[in-house]
């Protein structure tokens, strides 16, 4: 089902025109034939199910079947054992030609891991009309600073733009603005030690292929956002999760993990040192904040054990009640911490704008790889971001955003209390976007809950995306859904959870 | 020298202030100490040479040496056998701590290949003030459509922006505009079969990790742009170069390469089919155009032998005298051709905006990987690009651009004739940016010519970037340098070439 959706369903689907003189099934036949002949639906492509196709074309299933039968008779499509209809690779094509490229097989070949099926489904479902997104980790469109961006665009429209290739580390104007901005969190970083990236996911990707040898260990909190993406695993790195308590990662566990990573390392005969990936402030997905004392102890453990730290500060500024302790990078005296920041969470994910702060040799190395990956981040995005900081928009936006997010958090907490108090547990987050819900009934399958909600157009993020062995959590976000959607969605969620918890199901 | 430059030289360099009461060497000492203490210059970082540092700080070398001596005495930096001064990893640091992360070593560890030293030098040198860029493959700033972009930005400043995450394949508005645009080159592609990428380099990267199994062969023209980047090699693919004549890739050679790739494949027990990467129109670096007949024969060979084709159409529209034959994709009836396009060459490289057209399963697979790499291309860039096409800017820009590029090409040809007629050979290109120059004297070392010109602030692209064994070519571009720079740069080039050709050198 995942594959089918990811193959050829479209967001804006074609429909036959009843006003035409040509029968509907003929129009459908011609449409599919055209797709196959031009190679858009290449040999081996799986067609959506008859139900899905008929619905998207707004025709009776029998009309569709007539068209499909004709195409099957013409050798253009074929049913397969095990179900599914596929574009034929051996029919009309091979009569004329020696062989036809089977891109569907090729698409299985590359070594980069595909996204988890659930992630692919989430990525697709997020753009489905009418879907209620209860887990989405981004601001709702109405919270985006559209007006500020329009002011920036007006400002830009009378400037000369850096439309040529820009410097490997990113535009100096933006790096200078960021250097000033970072001082507000206590980080001293010259423009030389900053790399502009297309969002923090790209920073992770660059680090994984540019700094860490294959087979080396990356330590991280468990659960963690990092488990939900493949950047590190696709680069051949091994994730080693460390248990957390309410003050953050447990240092005793971390120490033991460092020991075993070092032992594995000596077998690998590698010069590398273990890296710890951590989200100290408003952790994704748990929402927790690493305490001040834990941060100090972590930095001291890092010094003594020789590990480096990759600090993901995506939510650092999104505090709601009071600011979190300063980032780890602020107390870093020896270039031990790589610090990642982004505009995706607090401002605009679509802009694709993030930064990485670290020792100059690291930044230069990663800049070189970035140049090989995409030749730098879009100059328009960089120009807009530089004006965003330099024009003071960031400060005023954060001041407007915090009360609104606080209102949303409190709303969701109230709804949770009303509908979930007897079936789940959670902590009140002090910032970020997320509430990490634990369902107390062992009998509830989170996987089934995810699919049942999706059937009812409610999208949640299952906890096992962030910890493969997790069987009881989901991640909710109060950032995206509207007040009305939040209430409707949570009611569906509670109903489905209760239904699935019943032993009879 | 490459490493040193790539380590810590800056474009806008710090200088001590003679007006202060503190001696210059003390200011320098404090500056470097600060860099080391904050970890920006981490343990193992190589300092620029004394000559370079003294020049960038505008101080006497003796002043600098005093500062460096003090820092050495403090254990913060150290000379090493074999030359070079490095930030110490065992001095003041280790007195306090067990171990200090040596990021410089880590930066050697990742498996992604660094850029070739010459490419790194070119990337850095391009931003050096006063440099004459005779090889740069991009339009000069004054040819960029600044006015059109300002109009687009004004238009955008009254719209609501897609500031949220956008669909995996890219904005539908842009894909619809591209679907219309592609029809002008005879390509029928629905928005479903188009993937928006951050420039064609990213498309190459996605294909290399998403479609091709490690160890598989990629056939390509020799020389080729693809040899100058590492996207494919870093993904473990083997490049196999095919000789060209003036009508394009030689099909007899191609046939033999397909045979041996297939034999190697059966050893690998892989289901993959060989892929041919080609730039049929205004090839980079040779500027040649694949003839109409060769294109037909190539497509027929591809059908009969089962290979797929990756068509790089970056220069397709940049014809100067008359349009080239239609792209291979236009005659593709079975989804055998992946077609890459970009705004980087004809419009703006800084925008980072390209597209890939192909069978839907391939496009979906690559979109999924792109989501894992950078979560999509910047929405601002996509919005601007959509308006660029929809607003008719593209057509009028191309009409303005062609005469200007024609003028530049003819100017360079004239200068070449004047200064190089007895030492080199070349063909007149009918489009694109490049003239592929062959020096006739065997005694000339292109590597030495590159470095000698760089010393004199003239940047050329050595032919061995595009074919490791090439010993006689350089790539010139008439797109970037101004008329005055072109003449001054070519005179330096001719002088240096003559000097280095002499047996005594």
Describe this structure in words.
The structure is a homodimer of 505-residue chains. Chain A is of the alpha/beta class and 505 residues long. Chain A has 3 domains: 2-110, Orthogonal Bundle (Arc Repressor Mutant, subunit A); 120-137 and 397-501, Aspartate Aminotransferase, domain 1 (Alpha-Beta Complex), CATH 3.90.1150; 146-391, 3-Layer(aba) Sandwich (Aspartate Aminotransferase, domain 2), CATH 3.40.640. Helix content of chain A is 43%, strand content 13%. The first copy, chain A, has 18 helices and 16 strands. In chain A, strands 4-11-10-9-8-5-6-7 form an 8-stranded mixed sheet, with helices on both faces. In chain A, strand 12 and strand 13 form a beta hairpin. In chain A, helix 1 (2-8) packs across helix 7 (117-125). The two termini of chain A are 22 Å apart. The model of chain A is unreliable at 1-11 and 90-100 (pLDDT under 50).
Quick synopsis:
2 copies of one chain form a homodimer. Chain A has 505 residues and is an alpha/beta fold. The first copy, chain A, has 18 helices and 16 strands.
